[in-house]
Amino acid sequence: MKKLKYIIPLLILLITGSVQAQQSLSLTDAITIGLENNYDLQIIRKNEQIASVNNHWGNTGALPSVNFNLNGRENFNINDNENYRTQTISPEVSLNWVVFNGFSAKITKSKLEEMEAQSHGNTAVLVESTIQDIIVAYNSCLLQKEVVDVMKELSDLSEDRYRRAEDSREIGASTTYEMLQAKTSWLEDQSTYLQQKVDFENSIRTLNYVLGVQDDIVWEFTSELETTMPEYSVEDLKSKMLSNNQTLKNQYLNQSLLAKETELAKSNFYPSISVNTGIGNTWMDNYYSGSTPNNGQNSASAYVGVTLSFNIFNGGITRRGIQIAKINEDVTKVQTDQMQHSLSNQLVQLHSNFNVQKAVLELAEETVSTARLNLDLSEEKLKSGAINSFNYRDIQVVYLNAVVSKYRAIYNLIQSNTDLLRITGGIISEYE
Predict the structure, then answer these.
(1) Domain count of the chain?
(2) CA–CA distance, 332 with 351 (Å, rounded to integer)
(3) What is the separation, in whole angstroms, between the first and last Cα of the chain?
């Protein structure tokens, strides 16, 4: 028996690992850390930077291009009278500018702006998803911690009952069988308690992964499981969803982008006007092998040109391109309607689930209150001999299940509320 007193604490120490200094962590702190370190967010922010760099007039064809060319040539002439070589150097600077191309430059610039906005929207979607993952992971840690405390309380009660049964057996007031039953219950509760501590530590590791920090960091959680929830109406939630849901807003941008594709296809019907100009110089020197003196000449030139290009017939490629662009635009409109319908359906289900979880929590709290009172009364009855250890054990298990169910109901309610905030586009503003 004396050995057993040291074995249990040793098992706890082995499972919990080395003692580390805990760092305070609130839910707000967790969200801040996660948004800073999350791996996927780091990647998508780079894509956002690329979209921002691409959003430039230089990528639309609206700006002129300036080129510098330098040509050099050496000619060797061999003839009967006198051999000579000619050296030519011709530098040139030219400018080419498409002045008009069917408004395609303006349309392209507008498209690039919307692509940048869409990139911001993609980042926002991932930010929402990351916040939701952090909230779920953080509250999962709180849930597991509360269950650990419940398991510890139950284990302590079982140990106390086992000690009293052992003392009672020594003075002949109870049998060895009753003492062994109490011991078995205590060992079972200790085992459950130790396993729950492992689950709690694993939930912390999951949180650390979501936050993008080292796995071995140990936190002291300063936030609590939130039980106070607002009242929602489906009409208000739907209105917020249609205007603020980030996935839906991205779909609207995608629909607008395809409308721009139709405009670009139509711009091919317009003529193209371009201006080209340049200036150059040519140095040409002749070097003779005989008595003829070397000579050279220098000439400069400049030019300006205007080109008008208009496609008369290309086999209907332009018209078919417009038709395909319009079809793609119509497909996106149908997809938008489908997304709105799907989100509305999902919203109603989430709202219904939220109300059910609130009701479940109220019932769970009442059940815990009743189970706790029954446990306290049963403990007194056990001490007085009014009930046996088997009856008391059953009541302990009922209390344990009631408390665990209560905390799971709180966790489910928080998760349900988070789902509503996410689908209505309010999760970012809620935790700013």
Answers:
(1) 1
(2) 28
(3) 55
> In sequence order, which residues have a C-beta less than 8 Å from that of residue 332 and are 6 or more positions away?
251, 254, 255, 258
Beta bridge partners of 96: 65, 276
HSE, side-chain direction, 13 A CA sphere, residue 238: 11
C-alpha radius of gyration, the chain, whole number:
39
The pair of three-digit structure tokens given for residue 3, joined into one six-digit string: 């050995």
pTM for the structure as a whole = 0.78
The closest alpha carbon to 260, from 329, 211, 362, belongs to 329
Is 276 a member of any domain?
no
- pLDDT above 90: residue 423: yes
In a domain, 386, yes or no: yes
Query: How far apart (Å, rounded) are the C-alpha atoms in residues 275 and 262?
Result: 27
* Residues near 6 by beta carbon (within 8 Å), at least 6 away in sequence: none
Is 6 within the bounds of a domain?
yes
Burial of 337 (0-12, 13-18, 19+ CB in 10 A): exposed
Q: What is the domain range of residue 395?
A: 2-37+102-270+315-430
Amino acid at 57: W
- The amino acid present at 62, given as its one-letter code, is A
Pick the closest to residue 100 from 310, 409, 282, 304 (CA basis).
310
* Residue 20 DSSP code: -
CA angle 390, 391, 396 (to 5 degrees): 95
Whether residue 44 lies inside any domain: the answer is: no
**Mind listing the pLDDT tens digit for each residue in 202-226?**
999 999 999 989 888 889 999 999 8
Q: 3-state SS of the chain: helix, strand, coil percent to 5?
A: 65, 15, 15
**Two structure tokens written together for 418:** 């988070």
Output the domain CATH number for residue 346. 1.20.1600.10
User: Looking at the predicted structure, is the pLDDT value of residue 160 above 90?
Assistant: no
| In the predicted structure, residue 14 carries a pLDDT above the cut 60 | no
